[in-house]
């Protein structure tokens, strides 16, 4: 099975397990979209911005000596966006609605990022 399809299946499982999640997008660290579970046509733009934010987050942790990146979480007035490094080559971005259980978002986001990283490792 193709990498993008397997990643999309993991993202679909994430949305099914966690009712507050509105969608997700996976991309390469270069910003190329691999799979998209978002409504509308925001996937390519979200992928490009996700890669940039991942790079900035990693750099900030290096500069400040705070260790390896686990996640970047953005809280907005209409919900949350969480970014995860899914192995060395993939970024997973997850959107959740307002009032979302942030603990569950973080737990399930990390679990899905690990699953996506495993899929990518098998594909190599």
From TrEMBL:
Residues 8-96 form the Roadblock/LAMTOR2 domain. It holds the Pfam family Robl_LC7. This is Roadblock/LAMTOR2 domain-containing protein. It comes from Nonomuraea monospora. The lineage of its organism: Bacteria, Bacillati, Actinomycetota, Actinomycetes, Streptosporangiales.
